[in-house]
Amino acid sequence: MTDSQRVVFWRSRWLGVAFIAAILAVWEIASASGMVPSLSFPRVSAILVTWWEILRSGELLRELLPSLLRMFGGYLVGAALGVLIGLLMGSLRTVYYLLEPITEVLRPIPSPAYIPIVILFLGIDDEMKIFMIAFASFFPVLLNTYSGVRAVDPVQVQTARTFGVKGRKLLWQIVLPSAAPFIFTGMRISLAVALIVMVISEMVAASNGIGYFILAAQRGFKIQEMYAGVFTLAVVGYSFNRLFLLIENQVLAWHYGHTQQQRN
Amino acid sequence: MTSSTAAYLCARGVRKAYAAPGGSTVALSGVDVDIERGTFVSIIGPSGCGKSTLLQIIAGLVPASGGEIFLNGRKVEEPPPPVIYVFQQYQRSLFPWKTVQRNVAYGLENRGAYDAAEIERRTRELIRLVKLSGFENHYPWQLSGGMQQRVAIARALVCRPDVLLMDEPFSSVDALTRAGLQELLLQLWRELKFTVVFVTHDVDEAIYLSTRVVALSRAPARVAVDIAIDLPHPRDQIATRELPRYLEYRHRLLAQLFAEEGLESTARAAA
To answer: How many other CB atoms are found less than 10 A from the CB of residue A26?
Structure first.
């Protein structure tokens, strides 16, 4: 290893990856040597074997697939409504004054607190979970879209007006793309929120899904399966975030170039 | 209201007052200007006198507190299609998510009069006229300031407006770039024969470009001086600016501006 390569390692993601590997190694040794109770902390190698088995048998995917469908269904509905109502709140003062107080009252209540209420109306099936995920995904997108609309440069709006563009066309052609960086921020927050609410709602009431699987494994003392389920969520959450950033970098390439140029 | 003897573009007693602590600030106090079709009229005045506000009122972007604007005998209440406004802040006025081609095409897309192929043809033509061929697929932020302002001019002219309203369009580029943009604008004005109302704080720029210069007084502003600029076309950055008549115009307008700024002694010393 040359000197410059060493510098690159200490200032690269690989340092963090090595750190994760080190934690897992300590876990493995601590569990194998009996320093920690191996019932609650099975060896990492044993968890990986179990993980591989339930992946190969299809059991894991059978649980994961319905979870992901719920999550995306709820997320897309919540985000779409967030963008729509955020655009309206940002551009029409009346809509803002109508909806701002109720938003501020509902938003601070942690979403899981609504689950019992929603069960009363929608039962414990997919409708309840999708509703919960949509509801929780809605607020970050709404607030960021609203901020994005308020931050639209008035010169751009006036430019569009001088070309005779107003109303819905103005919203669609100028306000929406201009607010897109904010909207993407909100959607990325909501993606994490959607994953959380998906798991919680499945833990509260479900007969399948990854959240149900983790809780059932713990109750059935299948501790290795429980950890495998949690590891699966880490992989899912990480992958979605990476995928989201990939799309964001494509769609908002203009934004990064523009802000870069303004900084220079 | 409508009269055949009225000029093409008229401001009649235009007033603008802003709410301010303890009353209101009057920016414009009854401005009357008549602008003939095809002329190039510059509006100058001390900074903060409301030149830009007047231009925005003419454009229908800002409501006047009193008075009226008429375009071709019709009252202006919101931005009229034959009038296009070019903003001083070209960096903020161009859409950063659109390429040069898409930015220029935007001027036509919402007119609904042309199909995609015709929009494409006219857009390329204007990009060629402002000498940006080859930059169609660049984004505005990849261009220099002068090039960005040329994109804004192309976007304004692509829909063949009758009137171009320009708010200090060349004030934030360096002197050489500015001279280049001035030449470009004059050339396009001679070829395409639109009317220009040009706001600037630069007396030399106003005289050099215009067929007429209107100087506003300090706020509350009214028309202080209104002179026809009788200099030969095409103009020349060096020769025109050395003509005795050019210097006469310059003397009159600068003396007026200095007087407005309370700099009489300087003006007298200069004379």
So the answer is: 12
